Amino acid sequence: MTTSLIRVQQVHASQPYVRDMVISYEDKQRMTSQICTLYICTVYISTLYISTLYICTLYICALYICTLYICTLYVCTLYFMLYIFVLYTLYSIYLYFIYLHTIYLYSLFLLYALHSICSYFIPYALYLYSIYLYSVYLYSIHYTRYLYTLYICTPYKVLLYIKYIRHYSMQCRYTQYIHYTQHILHTIGYSTHEITVYNILLYTRYSTQCHNTPKLTVLDFE
Question: Where are the membrane-spanning stretches (predicted)?
Fold first, then answer.
């Protein structure tokens, strides 16, 4: 190979045209090498650019899809919350109307019960009150008669009986005297047994004073 190279150099030295052709061939080889290198670099850069662009496109698409999903989820959440709020508001209004309706029915029931109680008990209460007034009226009449008898008739009767007693005692008329004495004691409020004992004592007293006192037994004083 060294012999060939020396030969080529000799040829180059003896023939300038061939030398120029050889130089041009080397340039072509160098240019071809550069073109290949440039091509390889271009293909590598193109491949790298396309890969980067593809990856970026995929990343942008994924980011877009994720953003769209998040936005869709956010909007759906807002719509769902709005739906829940509207549903809760409507249910609250429904419960409020149910509450008002219940109060209305309860008020009607109370009014009906009060009306029933009044329609049943008021006549009965009026009847009892009329009976009470009638009882008070009878009691007032009885009490008036009692007061009239106690403060008007009784003193008059007692005075009248005392007058008769004095009159008959002076005449020794024992029977009439005992009769009016019993009336006085009975009017004042003595019992029958007390009146009988008192009559026996009076008989014992006046039998010694009056000679015309009748002969009586215990049975005559009862």
Answer: 31-50, 62-87, 93-114, 121-140
